[in-house]
Amino acid sequence: METRRKNVIEEKSFRFALGIVGLAKKLVNEKKEFVLSKQILRSGTSIGALVREAEHAESKKEFIHKMSISLKEANETRYWLDLLMNSDYMEKREFEKLNDEVTQLIKLLAAIVKTSKLNS
Questions:
Q1: Which residue segment(s) compose the domain that 97 sits in?
Q2: pTM for this model (two decimals)
Q3: Domain count, the chain
């Protein structure tokens, strides 16, 4: 049986994506909000998808590129969270939880990109 090394960014981005899926469902079902929910669903789930893509990059340059795009998506997701919070679509507690998670992802991704560039 193969044991995989724990990948913190992969795990955190996947858990975050699950939270974003839950938020999008809630926005559609309870708030009847369809446009912003699609925006945050797209950007919030693409963070982890790009991290997974980077895992099998064919070169260091491609790895850095995928992680950089993931960082941009995380920053965009933070924008949508701010917008949803300030337009009264989200409760403060839910916003604080997701905002804290995306901030952690941004810090991790920024460190990965910076370190990868220095080591290439």
A1: 8-118
A2: 0.93
A3: 1
